[in-house]
C-alpha cells in the first residue's frame, strides 16, 4: 500500500513512517534501534514542527539542540540518519529546498578516550594470566578473540563444526543474538563471512576442548549472555596486571593493530576482520597507518641515501 504524506504532518511522525517504510526489515535490529533513538530525539526536540516548515534555520537549530547533549561524532551520526529521509521529502515536494545543505556540525568536547588496544607486551602478559583450564570458560573466549580478531557476537556463535583443525582454519559465518532473544543470526555484512587461519597452538587447545560437544552447539553460550560480564572478567585481568583496561572489542583492535605493526597488508587485515572494504580498515586504524607511513619515510630516505 502506497503511503501518502501530508505537508502539514509533524516531522517526527514523517520520520517514523520513513524508517518503517525504508529501514524496517532492511537493516540489522541493532542499527534499527539507532534510527528509533533518532526518532525519539526528534519527538523531544521538535514536537510540533510540521514537515513543510523544516527550513535551514530550523534544521540547524535542531542540530545545535542535539549537540548540546552529545559529542560531535554523535551529532554527525544524527545528521546522517536524518538527511536521507529529508532528501526524500524534498523529492516528494513536501519540502521546497534541502535544509541540510551547508549544515554545521557542533558537539560537546569529547571525553578523554580510553585505551582501545594493548601493545604486544601487554597482550602477552594478559594471555599468560588467563585461567585456561580443561573446560571452556570466559578466559578461553578472551584468548580466541585475541588470536582471531573476531567480533564478540561472532565468537559467541562459534561451534565445533566451524573448526577445520587439519587445515588450521576457522569459519566465521554467523553471529549470536546476545542483545536480543538469543539464537544464531546473520553476520554484520556479507564480507563478514570468512575463513581465517589459526595458529597450531590454538588448534591443539581447541581440538581437545570441543570433544564431546555437539557440532552445532555454540561453545560459550549457556543461557543468557551479557557483554558486560565478559568485559568485567577482562577488566579484572587488566587491573591485576597493571595494564590498560580495554573492552572485549578492544581485543579485536589489539589483534588488528599487532598485524599492521608486523607489516601485514591492509587488504589482508581487512579480510581477516571481515570489513566490507579496506576503507573501513583505513579509517578505523588511521593513527596506526600514519605511524607506519612515518617509518616508511625513514626507510625510503635510508634506501635513497645508500644509492649515492
Offer a few descriptive terms.
3-stranded antiparallel sheet, DNA polymerase, domain 1, 308 residues, single chain, two-stranded antiparallel ribbon, hpI Integrase, Chain A, 2 domains, mainly alpha, globular
Summarize, please:
This protein has helices at residues 11-22, 29-45, 56-67, 72-91, 120-129, 138-148, 152-156, 200-209, 227-241, 248-261, 266-273, 278-284, 286-305; strands spanning 163-164, 169-172, 175-176, 184-185, 194-197. With 308 residues, the chain is mainly α.
Task: Outline the structure in words.
The protein has 308 residues and is mostly helical. The protein has 2 domains: 11-91, DNA polymerase, domain 1, CATH 1.10.150; 120-293, Intergrase catalytic core (hpI Integrase, Chain A, Orthogonal Bundle), CATH 1.10.443.10. The chain is 52% helix and 5% strand. It is built from 13 helices and 5 strands. It has helices at 11-22, 29-45, 56-67, 72-91, 120-129, 138-148, 152-156, 200-209, 227-241, 248-261, 266-273, 278-284, 286-305, and strands spanning 163-164, 169-172, 175-176, 184-185, 194-197. The chain has a 3-stranded antiparallel beta sheet, with no helix packed on it. The protein has a two-stranded antiparallel ribbon with strand order 3-4.
What's the layout of helices and strands?
Layout lengths: L10 H12 L6 H17 L10 H12 L4 H20 L28 H10 L8 H11 L3 H5 L6 E2 L4 E4 L2 E2 L7 E2 L8 E4 L2 H10 L17 H15 L6 H14 L4 H8 L4 H7 L1 H20 L3
